[in-house]
Prior knowledge:
Elements: E1 4-11, H1 14-24, E2 28-35, E3 52-59, E4 62-69, E5 79-85, H2 87-90, H3 94-109, E6 113-121, E7 124-131, E8 137-142, E9 158-164, H4 172-182, E10 187-193, E11 206-213, E12 216-222, E13 235-241, H5 244-254, E14 265-267, E15 273-278, H6 281-285, H7 290-295
Parallel strand pairs: 1-4, 5-8, 9-12, 13-15
Antiparallel strand pairs: 1-13, 2-3, 3-4, 5-9, 6-7, 7-8, 10-11, 11-12, 14-15
Amino acid sequence: MQKIIPNLWFNKNAEEAGEFYASSFPKTTTSVEARYPETDLLDFQKDFAGLPLVVGVEIDEYRFTLINAGDQFRPNPSVSFMLNFDPRVLGGDAASVQASLDKLWTALSDGGKVLMPLQEYPFSPRYGWVEDRYGVSWQLMFVDPDGLSTADEARPFIVPSLLFGGAAQNRAREAIDFYVSLFPDALIGTVAEYPAPSGPAPAGAIMYADFQLAGQWFVAMDNGAGQEFGFDCGVSFEVDCADQAEIDHYWNAMSAVPEAEQCGWLADRFGASWQIVPTNMGELMARPDGYEHMMQMKKLVIADF
C-alpha cells in the first residue's frame, strides 16, 4: 500500500487535469473521490459548493491526489516526478520503451514549458524535463540497462524528486537524513556529489541522491543553477496514518512553521509541505459536520471529527 501520496494543487481544473493524465499516460485511471459540501463552506470556498474537492489519479498503480482549489498555489519545479523508462521495469525492448517516452513527452509538452530539452546527456541517452500545462514538472529518462552495472537495482517508473534551492539551498543531505530517521522501511541508496562548485551549490553538495521512505523511492538534489523557486503548497506529500499516535509522531517531528498549520497541513524545516492524515479520512469526512470540524483543526485529531 502506498503510504506517501503526492498531492498536486489545481486552480478549479483538477477534474480536467485528471482526464488529461489518464489520456496521456498508459495504465492510468482517474475519478472524482470527494466533493465540496453544498453548505457550511467558508466565504472563500462558496463558489466551490458541490464541485470536486479531490480527484484521484493512478498511474501504473502509483497514486496521486489532485486538489481542486483556487489560485493561491501552483506546482513549481522544486518538486518534479522522475519517469524512469527502464526496459527492466516496463518490459519490451529499448526501441519500444524509447518510443513510449517520446509519445509521453509530446503529450506533456503540449501547452507546457520545456525546462531541459529531450536529448542525450552524460547520464542518459535520452532525457528531458518538462513542465506541463498545469505547472506539474516531469523528468523523463531512458535508462539503458547495458550502461549500468549488474549490481544496480532498477528504480520504479515514478519517483518524486525534491530540488533544494532558495531558503533550502544545500540542505538536501540534511533533509535526507532527517526524513530517513522518521519513516519506517527507510534507507539511502545512490549518492553523488558535485565534484566542483555549480551555481550556488559548492563542491560536495548533493548532485543526485535517492532514498526510500516507507519503502517508496524519492530523489533529492541541491540546486546547481540558482533558480529562485522553493517548496510551497503547490505540491505536498500526504502521509496516511493508522491512528492518532502515528499522526502525533509525524506532526510533532515535522511541523516547523506554526502559521502554515491548517487542516492537517504542515511545512517542515526545509519548507516542504506535508499532509498528516488518518487512513480513514474519507470516512471521517462523511460524518455529520466532518468537513466543518476539519476546517477548525490544525493537527488532525480523530476524536474531534
